[in-house]
Structure to design on (384 residues):
């Protein structure tokens, strides 16, 4: 029997999503930019997917740009806005000149943090805001960090390692009161909470298909009408001149279907995950009284738990659980080669032992209470 509790790393493709995308491999496989019926079908499917993504976010289809991943959406948002800010230069020579100031947080995903580090090499100043022990960013920190030449703020909705959810509406309001552009990485939030670009008041928002029961290699960036942004890839005029490269039609169709499924049953999905999470917390508290939960337990995704069970380091625990047929994460999937080095738990100033012991349990709407019982049996045996 195998149990999968690593859904923040990636999800299985839903049956309905798979069925929707299959015809676009061998039947309607045309290039959406060509002029015959094969491509018309593909083009119509892109339009439909764009509408479905837009509907989920409460935006218009014309504001959605498809990308190859959440990572590319974040790169396009940050480099694209930076290029526009400096008068249209999309690539910047290594430079020490003062191109402007960007604010982000110290617990962002690598696709934002490392993009910001690249921008620093290109003459931009970046402030990485601290977070509290619960992983939450105090809006006053943002207020205090804004300078005369700040032009962009990027703060994630929900953290991939801890599930902690930031006060995006308040943060975006602060940014707008200083005429700054506000981007948010919503990759982990989509499908786990309501994400409405109007309610949140964000200007740009990134998402990724493989976290919401669609395949890997597809993402999207929402760009509010009127926001000036430059492309970071050059070639054809795809995606309204913002993202050159023939679109991944089957993947985009899948993303569209996944978004439609969320639109139709978001609250049901949230309730299912929240029930599982509460059961998991109760069982952990009963069976492993020394366990420590990391991150906010209030402002938190309904599917994510970050737990330090004992002093056993997380890589050993993950391997032992894997031998027992249970897949869990150590934090960011791309970081599993460097255990204990979680920049998120470090930024939260958790003590070293607790950081090194932390594992991430991220549930899907398809997990069951029985799987949680089995996990508890296995982990209590291992800890003994
Ligand atoms: C918060 C967050 N942002 C961005 C990404 C990157 O998305 P992708 O895997 O589609 O590049 C991830 C993936 O783990 C993530 O968790």
């Amino acid at each position: 029997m195998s149990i999968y509790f690593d859904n923040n790393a990636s999800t299985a493709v839903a049956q309905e999503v798979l069925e929707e995308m299959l015809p676009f491999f061998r039947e309607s496989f045309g290039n959406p930019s060509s002029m015959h019926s094969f491509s018309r079908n593909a083009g119509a499917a892109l339009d439909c997917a764009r509408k479905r993504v837009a509907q989920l976010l409460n935006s218009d289809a014309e504001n959605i740009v498809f990308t190859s991943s959440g990572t590319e959406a974040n790169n396009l948002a940050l480099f694209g806005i930076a290029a526009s800010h400096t008068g249209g230069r999309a690539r910047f020579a290594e430079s020490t000149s003062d191109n402007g100031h960007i604010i982000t947080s110290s617990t962002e995903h690598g696709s934002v943090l490392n993009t910001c580090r690249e921008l620093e090499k290109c003459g931009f100043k970046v402030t990485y805001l601290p977070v509290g022990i619960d992983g939450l960013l105090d809006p006053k920190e943002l207020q205090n960090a804004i300078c005369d030449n700040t032009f962009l703020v990027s703060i994630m909705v929900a953290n991939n390692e801890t599930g902690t959810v930031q006060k995006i509406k308040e943060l975006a309001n602060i940014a707008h009161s200083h005429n700054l552009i506000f981007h948010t990485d919503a990759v982990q939030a989509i499908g786990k909470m309501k994400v409405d670009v109007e309610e949140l008041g964000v200007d740009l928002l990134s998402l990724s298909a493989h976290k919401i029961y669609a395949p890997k290699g597809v993402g999207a960036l929402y760009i509010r009408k009127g926001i000036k942004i430059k492309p970071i890839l050059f070639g054809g005029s795809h995606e309204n001149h913002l993202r050159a490269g023939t679109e991944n039609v089957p993947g985009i169709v899948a993303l569209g279907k996944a978004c439609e499924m969320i639109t139709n049953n978001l609250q049901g999905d949230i309730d299912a995950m929240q029930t599982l999470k509460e059961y998991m917390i109760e069982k952990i508290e009963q069976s492993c009284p020394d366990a420590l939960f990391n991150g906010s337990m209030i402002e938190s995704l309904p599917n994510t738990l970050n737990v330090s069970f004992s002093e056993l380091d997380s890589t050993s625990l993950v391997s032992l659980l894997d031998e027992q047929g249970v897949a869990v994460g150590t934090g960011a999937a791309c970081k599993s080669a460097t255990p204990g080095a979680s920049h998120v738990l470090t930024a939260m100033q958790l003590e070293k032992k607790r950081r090194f012991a932390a594992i991430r349990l991220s549930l899907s709407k398809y997990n069951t209470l029985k799987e949680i019982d089995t996990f508890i049996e296995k982990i209590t045996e291992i800890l003994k």
The first strand starts at residue 3 and ends at 4. Residues 15-261 form a domain with the Aspartate Aminotransferase; domain 2 fold (CATH 3.40.640.10). The chain is about 40% helix and 15% strand. The pocket of pyridoxal-5'-phosphate is lined by residues 69-71, 74, 109, 111, 156, 160, 185, 187-188, 208, 210, 219, 333 (CB under 6 Å).
